[in-house]
Amino acid sequence: MNKDIFICHASEDKASVARPLAACLSERGLSYWIDEAEISAGESITQKVNEGLKVSKFVVVIFSRAFMSKHWAKRELWSVLNQEAKSGKIIIIPLLVGSQTEVAGIIDEFPLLNDKSFLLWDGDANSVSNAIQNAVLKVQGASPTCVTEMHSCGHCATPFMHGVHVCLGCQGSIKYGLTQRERMNIRKISAAIIGMLSFITMVHFPSYSESWLGLEVPMMWGMGFWSIPLAAILALGAGLYFEARAVARKALLVRTFR
Ligand SMILES: [Zn+2]
User: Fold this and answer.
1) 205 and 219 in contact (C-beta within 8 Å)?
2) CA-CA distance, 61 to 92, in Å (whole number)?
C-alpha cells in the first residue's frame, strides 16, 4: 500500500489518457502507479487489478475501445466488481473513454457498468482528477462535510460555504470564532481575576515580614519566601484557564456582522 491510485490501461491510451491523468492526480498530492499497469492482449484483468491493489488503495480502470479489444473474458469483470461489492468499499473507479457511440457500445457490452458510478473522459484530465480525488476522500472517511460545510447568514439567511468572509446576500462580514474585541474583553476579565487572586493569595500567605497588613502572622519555614511566586502561579493558571475555556466555547461560532 504505497500508492494511492493504480492506473490500469491499454498501451494505446497511455499518451492520451493515462499520462495526463497521472500528472493531474500528482498535482493534487495523490500518488499513482502507472508504468507496469498496462494490459496486454490475453492478460487477466482480475490478476492485474489484484496486483494493483497490492501496491495501491484504488484502481482506475480506463475502458476504451483499445482496452475492450484485449482478450479478457467478460466474466472476469464480473468477478472483479463482485469482489469489490462484497468488500463494501469503492476500490475500482471505471473511466470510460471514447466518442458517445463508443461509450454506449462499452456499456452495452458491460451492462454491469450501469450499476456502478463511472467517470467519463471528455479530454479534461482536471475534472476527472477532481472526481477521483473526491471518491478517494470519501472512502478514506475524510468527512466531505468539512470540505463543503455550509452555513446560512443570520441576517438574510443566504447560504454560504465555510471559510467565506463576506455574505453575498447582505454584504455583512462573516466571522468565525471570537472577534478581536471579544478576545480583548476576555483578556481584561482574565487580568482582573489574576490581579484579585494574586492579592488574596498574598494576603493569606505570610511574606518576608512577620507582620502582614498590621497583623501578626506566624512565620513558617520557607512559606514566606514562596508566597509571591506561589500567588503568581495560582493566579496566572486560573486566569489562563478561564480565558481558554471562554475561547473554546465560542470557537465554533459563525456570525454575520453588519
Ligand atoms: Zn447575509
Assistant:
1) no
2) 7
Q: Which residue type is seen at 175?
A: K
Spacing, Cα 150 to ligand 1 middle (Å): 13
Cα–Cα distance for residue pair 58/91, rounded to 1 Å: 5
pLDDT tens-digit readout, 213-225: 666 655 554 445 5
Q: 59: which 3 cell numbers?
A: 484502481
Distance 171 CA to ligand 1 centre (A): 6
Q: Using one digit for the tens of pLDDT, what is the confidence trace for 30-67? A: 888 876 666 666 666 677 777 777 777 888 888 888 88
Residues 6+ apart with CB under 8 A from 55: 1, 2, 3, 6, 33
- CATH superfamily of this structure's domain 3-146: Toll/interleukin-1 receptor homology (TIR) domain (3.40.50.10140)
Task: Give me the residue label for grid cell 511566586.
Answer: 229
Q: Where are the alpha helices (DSSP H) in 1-124?
A: 19-27, 45-55, 65-69, 74-87, 100-109
Q: Report how far ligand 1's centroid is from the alpha carbon of 161 (Å).
A: 12
